[in-house]
Structure formats: C-alpha cells, structure tokens
TrEMBL record:
Protein name in UniProt: NADH-quinone oxidoreductase subunit H
Topology relative to the membrane: Multi-pass membrane protein
Family to which this protein belongs: Belongs to the complex I subunit 1 family.
Transmembrane regions listed in the UniProt entry: 15-34, 81-104, 124-146, 167-185, 197-217, 246-269, 289-309, 329-348
Catalysed reactions, as listed in the record: a quinone + NADH + 5 H(+)(in) = a quinol + NAD(+) + 4 H(+)(out)
Self-association state and partner proteins as the record states: NDH-1 is composed of 14 different subunits. Subunits NuoA, H, J, K, L, M, N constitute the membrane sector of the complex.
GO MF, one example: NADH dehydrogenase activity
Main location per the UniProt record: membrane
Function text: NDH-1 shuttles electrons from NADH, via FMN and iron-sulfur (Fe-S) centers, to quinones in the respiratory chain. The immediate electron acceptor for the enzyme in this species is believed to be ubiquinone. Couples the redox reaction to proton translocation (for every two electrons transferred, four hydrogen ions are translocated across the cytoplasmic membrane), and thus conserves the redox energy in a proton gradient. This subunit may bind ubiquinone.
Entry's Gene Ontology cellular component terms: plasma membrane
Gene of this entry: nuoH
UniProt keyword list: Cell membrane, Membrane, NAD, Oxidoreductase, Quinone, Translocase, Transmembrane, Transmembrane helix, Ubiquinone
Localization annotation: Cell membrane; Membrane
Domain of life of the native organism: Bacteria
Amino acid sequence: MTLLAFDWTIVIEKLILVAVVVFASLGIALYSTWAERKVAAFMQDRKGPNRAGPFGLLQPFADGAKLIFKEEIIPNSSNKWLFILGPAMAMTAALITSAVIPWGNYLDIGGRHINLQIADVNIGILYVFGAVSIGVYGIMIGGWASNNKFSLLSALRGASQAISYELAMGMALIAVLMCTGTLSLKTIVDQQMAPGHLWNICYQPLGFLIFFVCAFAECNRTPFDLSEAENELNMGYHQEYSSMKLGFYLFAEYVNMFISSAVMVTLFFGGYDVPFLNESLLSPNVAALIGIIALMVKIVIFIFIFMWVRWTIPRFRYDQLMNLGWKKLLPLALVNMLITAVVILLLHH
C-alpha cells in the first residue's frame, strides 16, 4: 500500500492567499479610518486630516503609532486573561469571516489552476454566520472582564442588539437560499454570472434591504452604535481599554464593515461579476484581475454608504432599536420568506 504524495504547493498557495486577504483587509480597514474622517469633513464643509503626509494620507499610520506607544493600563480588579482575550477575539472573528468569500474566479499560473477563495466550503453562509456570532463574545468578554458596571451594561446592550438583528438577517438570507438552492458563496456568484440570470438584488430587493439594515447593527455602526454611546454610557464596553487593545476593538469595526460589504456584494450584487462583459472571451488572468477590481469597486461603494449614513442619521434610542429589530424587521423578513416560498412553488408548478 503506497502513501499518496502530499501536495505542498496547495498549502503554499493557500498560505499566500491567506496572507494577501488578511493584509488587504487590514490595509482597507486602516484607510477606512482616513476615508471616514474625509467624508465627515466633506459633509461638514471642512478639510479633515491634512497634516500627516499629502492629503493627510499618513494619518492612519500616525494614529496607529499613537495607539501602540500609549501607556497600556490593565485595571487591578479586572480578569486579566479575559481582559486580553476580548479584543483579540473581536479582531480574530472579524478576519476569519473572509475565508469563504470568493475574491475572483481563478488564476492560471504555470498551468496551475489557483482559486481566489481561501476555502470553498459548501456551507459558506453558515460559516459566515458562525464567525460573525463569535464577535459578540469579544464584546461581552471585554465588557465583563473590565469589572466596570458601565462597560458591562454596554456589553449587554451590544450583545442583545447583535442577537436581535441576527434573527432578521438570517431570515432574509433564507429567502436568498430558497432562490439559489445552495449555501456555497462561490456557487451563488456563479449563478448570478450565468447567461440569462440577473443579480439576486433583482429577485430579493426586500431581503437585501433587511440584510443591509441588519449589517449596520451587526457592525455597531450609526444609527445602531448603542454599545459605544459615549453620551449615555461613558465610552461603551471598551471604556477601560487603552493602547493597542482599544485599537483592536476600534479596528475590528472597520474590518467588519469591509467584510460585511464583501458579503452583501457577493450575495446580492454578483460578487466579482462585471455586467455585460463576457469573461470567456478573455484570458483567465485578465478576467480574474477585472473581477477583483469590480468586486473592490462595489465594496468601496458600500463602505462609502456606511460612512454617509453615519454622518446623516442620528443615533436611535435603545427602545427604538429593539422595536425596529423585533417588531418591524423580523416580521418583514418572515413575510419576505413566505412570499419567496409561494412564488417558487407557483413557478415550479
């Protein structure tokens, strides 16, 4: 009985892809902080960061260096291990979600067929939901381990908010799955690219709207940033944090925003699909490059919308937030799911 030779090139390919995706996610999140301040400045008729480097382009590095070199304080009464674990878990949960997102079709290098997706698992959407849910533990552990009643109250708010909106988000996704018949994100993109097939936004406009609103709540973005409401609960669940631990919490929000945008584009806007372009006429590498650029353009548009909403809409009260989640979005998502089921049944008969 001969042992099968292990193909190390696949492992190396995947490791390179992981490194590229992680550094790209961190780089985009880094410059999202700069872009957010520029968008806010534009909307408020001022300049925004403009001192560190041309157009303030080095400002994110200045902010990062400031956080790294700040004094690190761990409260005496805190649970030290959990206090460190909280921000680490928030950041890890934000990054691991990117593993199942198809960033492009495939590259052809030296006759090798390299898929631009870290893991094409057939339960990709369930994996995304599982990874997103871990982020709630990061908030909860950080708030509890601080041994500060305001941090704990804020963490409880954040956790209950995320759990409430995940339900409506899940229901909106079920309607998409009924239309596509698969949990694999790659297959969902391939279906949207197929001739005669439209993007899922055309079949599920209400599902997308519900998913989009829930994404704001999941990312703790205005108008749902109740877990970080400085004017209500001091500074939120990360009140006792300083230096890079605080940086991890703040940074995880921007990584989440990037990954949420990528998931929405993949599910509803054809992922790396370019409308009216026949990719089969191009070489695989050119088609992959155009696909990556198209995906990134769509993601940047969504990130801009996240920022636009932040500087346009005021924060909800907590009772309004919970009312919207349980009494508006959840029934809407259920109705959307039932309508989708009825339409599919009628079409099949």
